[in-house]
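Researcher: Let's try something more involved. This one mixes different molecule types, so please make sure each is placed in the same coordinate frame as the others.
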Amino acid sequence: MEALRYDWTVEEIAQIYELPLPELIFRAQSVHRRYHKPSEVQACMLLSIKTGRCPEDCAYCPQSAHYKTAVQPAPLLDVQQILDAARSARSAGATRFCMGAAWRSAPLGAEFERVLEAVRGVRELGLEACCTLGMLTDEQAQKLAEAGLTAYNHNLDTSPEFYGEIISTRTYQDRLDTLDRVRKAGISVCCGGIIGLGESRNDRYSLLHQLAIQQPHPESVPINLLVRVEGTPLAKQEPVDVFELVRMIATARILMPKSMVRLSAGRLTMSEEAQALCILAGANSIFIGEKLLTTPNPSAQEDIRFFDKLGISFRAIT
Ligand code: SAM
Ligand code: DTB
Ligand code: SF4
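Model: All components are placed in one shared frame. Result:
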């Protein structure tokens, strides 16, 4: 088996991304089959455990306090509420439960202890536990690791060059620093981005480059298609051609062969054919359930029917 590479150049990435589609898909499939089961995807379920009033100004996000959106703010949920949702995620076929909080940085004290208890509870249910709580200190990363957290989600979102157009309240380096802390604590890294923000193809290559030069590669790479939300600065953003998403996924698969590549936000506006192409391009995970964090997602029944048609099963709890 070829060794994983961490020295990809932006030029090489551009060449892969721009391959004729049949060639790109063939290469992505060949890599995919070496490391993953082509007839299986992992289902994950999200829960917003603290919603809205976020001090950051991410231009895509309905939870930012800077924009007036229909999101109903809600304080941190109780552990029991979180674990009830985790149990229904498990019954729906999810093997990973992702808890998202609209914080700039994870808090200290009682609220953080509550998150730790929720993480322990989710692990006891036999699920992988993922959190996305904003920036972390070394101590917080250590405590999350001790609670059994499987993965921490912290996206780079876009290229370093385009970042300032989307977020002004933190830097790319802040993101990289938290990712380092997560890795140092021994937690697996979930890190990806969004397309459709108005970025160029060069920005997409540059984001992929930032991900693919990390050593080790992020174990999990979510690729989100912007969900345009009324009230955010990107509400009227021109929708991106879905083949860009397919190319993005296929390139991520080729660059980071062992990682889980997750077809994340944005499925609701995609045809079944487009979603199937994303799977062919090497995506091996989706979010299930009617809601992502605050925006809608296909229903469990729709997804069951869809994956049944494709002959693809959800990975079982091992
Ligand atoms: N506040 C934490 C943070 O930013 O890391 C965690 C929650 S935040 C909502 C998690 C990720 O969701 C973001 O990094 C972004 O990639 C994605 N996201 C947020 N709003 C989105 C949207 N409208 N469309 C697609 N992805 C979105
Ligand atoms: C990720 O990359 N996508 C998920 C998860 N990580 C936390 C979040 C998508 C959020 C979409 C907008 C919303 O529902 O609020
Ligand atoms: Fe806050 Fe995260 Fe939304 Fe940015 S993406 S506004 S940090 S919740």
